[in-house]
Write a structure and sequence with these properties.
single chain, mainly alpha
Length: 341
């Protein structure tokens, strides 16, 4: 059985429209929560169904068949995995501790945001920056499965001192909310891919990709409507969250640059490494965290702030990378070749 979707994988994720959607959701949720608290409480009843829908759609987008492409560039794949799961988690923890050690809830949310590499939208920016999208697509399922498996370990390692997390509830939550939906979503994807025409299946994938930002915005609205009074009391601390995220993006860019030069990567592979280490998986981590750590709006707020800041960062990173291509072009307008990896 084969998956006939486009080899570039899912390209849903933060566009200007996505950012506007999330900002609008914050504003509407805050207004509703402040002006009509009863309505805000009612909206919170829909959080679980929204979470399940987001998780299911994100899992539907995962192309397990794309993993074979990582074999074609094993050095880059291993390098990206090591950067995302062996180096960056400790950088993220150090930054969160530096800025928010006195705010355990925001600290926990920020650590979770830093830990998980993106599994969908970084591919769109990789394509725009003329990177290797086939390799990027291969990293998507690898990143998603690794971060879900490591999630409990990360929380134990980095947040056990905060007292925020009830570790006894996490295994059952991950099993019922993520393992089962992942299997169902992949079975559905495989079945539809083989039953429908390539054009029809591609249209369904496009609908799924378009639905994820809308549902994410709906979740943000529900969270803010139900918890705006709590979030507002810590508003001054969000400046520290923004500063920490800015430092994280600067340092991870430096890590990607250093590794690219150390291992003499081609330009297309430099783009993949830069984008996968920069982009974070805020939608999935927001869903995972709302289930694993319930009723902690400040934890979710830190993740949402990261989601908003990430789009302009990736757009700027794309421009920085594209400028290198322009700089390498010779008199005939062709880019000079770069070392193969």
């Amino acid at each position: 059985m084969t998956d006939r979707s486009d080899s570039s994988g899912a390209l849903s994720g933060p566009t200007v429209g996505t950012t506007v959607l999330v900002l609008a959701a914050i504003a509407v949720g805050a207004v509703l929560g402040l002006s009509q608290p009863d309505l805000g409480a009612s909206l919170s009843q829909g959080i679980d169904p929204t979470l399940l829908a987001i998780v299911g759609l994100l899992f539907f987008e995962v192309r397990l068949g794309a993993v074979k492409q990582s074999v074609m560039s094993p050095r880059v794949s291993i390098l990206a995995w090591a950067a995302n799961f062996l180096i960056i988690p400790f950088i993220g923890y150090a930054i969160a501790a530096l800025f928010l050690s006195g705010q355990p809830l925001l600290f926990t949310g920020l650590v979770i945001y830093f830990l998980a590499p993106c599994t969908d939208w970084f591919l769109a920016f990789t394509r725009m920056a003329r990177g290797d999208t086939a390799l990027g697509a291969a990293l998507l399922p690898i990143n998603m499965l690794t971060q879900l498996l490591l999630y409990p370990l990360w929380l134990l390692l980095f947040t056990s001192h905060t007292g925020v997390v009830d570790f006894q509830t996490i295994p059952n939550a991950l099993l019922s909310w993520f393992v089962v939906p992942f299997i169902v979503a992949q079975m559905l994807r495989c079945g539809l891919s083989n039953v429908l025409s390539a054009a029809a299946f591609k249209k369904i994938c496009a609908w799924v990709g378009a639905a994820i930002p809308v549902l994410t915005a709906a979740l943000v609205l529900q969270i803010f409507a139900a918890n705006i009074t709590v979030i507002a009391t810590h508003f001054e601390a969000f400046g520290l969250v923004l500063a920490a995220i800015f430092c994280f993006f600067v340092i991870t860019y430096g890590v990607a640059e250093g590794l690219s030069r150390l291992f003499n990567l081609s330009y297309r592979h430099q783009v993949v490494l830069a984008m996968t280490t920069a982009a974070r998986n805020a939608p999935l981590m927001l869903a995972v965290t709302a289930i694993a750590i319930p009723d902690q709006p400040l934890v979710y707020a830190a993740l949402i702030i990261g989601m908003l800041v990430e789009f302009p960062h990736l757009a700027g990173l794309k421009q920085v990378l594209i400028s290198r291509v322009a700089g390498r072009k010779g008199p005939a307008g062709e880019a000079h070749s770069t070392p193969s990896s």
